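User: structure tokens for this one?
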Amino acid sequence: MSEHGAPTYAAIDLGASSGRVLTGRLDGERLELVERRRFPNRPVRLPSGLHWNLLTLFAKSVACLREAGPLAGVAVDAWGVDYALLDGAGRVLGLPFHYRDGRSESMVARAFARVSREEQYSITGIQTMPINTVFQLVAEQGGAALGAAQRLALVPDLLALWLSGELANERTSASTTGLLDARTGAWSHALVNALGLPGRLFGDLVEPGTLLGPALAAHELGEGVPVYTAAGHDTASAFVAAPVADEHSAILSSGTWSLLGLELAAPILGEAAREANLTNERGVDGTTRLLKNVMGLWLEQECARAWRADHAELFADAAAAPAEGPLFDPDDDAFLAPGDMPARIAAACARTGQVAPVGRAGVVRSIVESLACKYRYVLECLKRVSGRDVRRIHVIGGGARVALLCRLTAELTGCEVLAGPVEATAMGNVLVQARAAGELASLADMRAVVAASARPTVYEPTSDRAGADATYHRFLDVTGLAAPAPIA
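Assistant:
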């Protein structure tokens, strides 16, 4: 309970570049959210590869919870696809790998040799990316950890286990693995078996808002603090806090990754969706997020790391830099692993006969313009596959703070952009807990709270459609992407 008497819920929100703990409580029709602490999420490179430092993330999170005061609940959300292998006593078998490790790059072809891409997509509806859990697990085959493992825990499952002592596979996180049946929301054991993976790994699935049990006494959080499942995949939690009003809205969860998509009642698993490499991920209340992963602000983050520069200053300088600079595909495989991102961007421009961007401001301007162009491309794919008439884009997450990106997204797509809330993921996490505790009744109720709690910044599309079209078609020319055919 808070000092005001309203229940206070804590959200452990772990992103690919930082973790944070926030608390929230309902105050009438509004949600009051307080950031308790934020800490970096830095991978560790060992002789075995690139790994997540999950023990440090967990320790920092629990320390924040202890300082947060009396709590009515706590839940964990985190990035998708990555996992721990557990023995029969729930102990971790080795440090979980980081999806950028690269060990699974050659596993895509191996998995498709066993079960074709077409067949896998018809079951799971998941975008083909080498980082997917399914390809990581194929890379584990023949290893001691997989041979001894009894269960698999996605990252939010694992931290919830450490908090409560109870293991459950939460469904929205499970949907990122490439092993969940998109129609039924159950594990596809036929696919698991065909790929030669041990079926024992995949346990009972639970919905967001499931009570796992009280926090373990060892964490000193107070007696009987409930541990719930959130919508464990952070994008699923973020979509809860997207204040969409109708079917004419797309949602862009903008952070280290950009995830641009639509919320649908059912998955779309046909050839057009597969050819567009769209993904069908599970959302709250059985909804489907038809979306595409785009590389996102990772590109700028790696540049800032190389330059040891401040993000806000880089974006401010980029806003003042000349437009119409070089463009590139943000999803080029060369950009996936950590490294010298400015040099990689220069090389990508050179490969397409363009002069590399000039200076730091030029590089970041090129990143942002290329992202906005890629958003338009993805949006056209989504519209074609779904038949939806999209008129506005809700930008949620950290990217909502980047005015240049939001403005160029409006200009390039021709859609109204509504930026905010920034802490959508934590809001969604807290609201799912509040509903589980009986304070809210439906997804519509949760979104009504968001709409009352956060005022978006509005960016209108430019009237110069010819100029926007010229930039977009230049992007298509240099990347070799073909514009999606219009809806018949």
